[in-house]
Amino acid sequence: MASPLILLTLTTLLFHLPSTLSQSAPAPGPAGPINITAILVGGGQFNSFRRLLNETRVLDQLPNQLNNSNQGMTIFAPTDNAFQNLPAGTLNGLSEEKKVKLVLYHVLPKFYSMDDLVTVSNPVPTQAGSSRGSLGLNFTGRASQVNVSTGVVETQINNALRKDFPLAVYVVDKVLLFQEDAPAPEGASSPPGTKPSAKAPSSPAADGDGATPSKNGGGRIVDMGMGLVGGLVLFCMAFL
């Protein structure tokens, strides 16, 4: 039979054990800010997009906006191959303002899961424009295969670099160009949609002496009048 002293000691140890464990295991602290650069670097094929984010200073703004929003954010990240497949000079031909707009066109000011993108009302506003219209994106398909369209290009959303609220980062194989950034077709001498100016109507063909038909008709009438007058004069002289 255990002595009362041993039982008292064991009871005291068991009583203090939970508090001892809680002190030795620190409570998890608050999650740190989301690192968009680390997400793109971890993807391994987004150097061009990351460079454009840095060049336009958009990367400095996105984390602050993300941390101060309760709506979250969705980013479409074109691969390096997507940038390499652009027509030569596409990016170099853009002003700094349009480069910023192009980057922001890849950002939705709200978190969307793949299921959300299937049922969302098109067009979806982007950070490049606050209202629906030419700067919105259109989504079609099913949850397993969703396509995004700008009206200029259309591509499939392949997978997600991150898909947890408040940030979703989806991979796309094409740069999402909107209408004013789309390169003009080769050999086009005028912007698409313009019509060639109407050809001026040719002047009526001239007669052999260079006079127009209306003028010739007037000349013949004058000649006939002069002939009648001359005939009357000669007729009157015959009776004098």
TrEMBL record:
UniProt biased composition (Low complexity): 183-206
Transmembrane segments: none
Entries under PROSITE patterns matching the protein: FAS1
Matches recorded under Gene3D superfamilies: FAS1 domain
Membrane topology: Lipid-anchor; GPI-anchor
Annotated region (Disordered), positions in chain: 183-218
InterPro entries named among the record's database cross-references: FAS1_dom_sf, FAS1_domain, FLA_A
GO cellular component: plasma membrane; side of membrane
SUPFAM superfamilies cross-referenced by the UniProt entry: FAS1 domain (SSF82153)
Signal peptide feature range: 1-22
One GO BP annotation of this record: plant-type secondary cell wall biogenesis
UniProt subcellular location: Cell membrane
Annotated FAS1 domain residues: 33-176
Keywords: Cell membrane, Glycoprotein, GPI-anchor, Lipoprotein, Membrane, Proteoglycan, Signal
Keyword Nucleus in annotation: no
Family under the similarity heading: Belongs to the fasciclin-like AGP family.
Physiological role: May be a cell surface adhesion protein.
The protein, known as: FAS1 domain-containing protein
Species of provenance: Helianthus annuus
Organism ancestry: Eukaryota, Viridiplantae, Streptophyta, Embryophyta, Tracheophyta
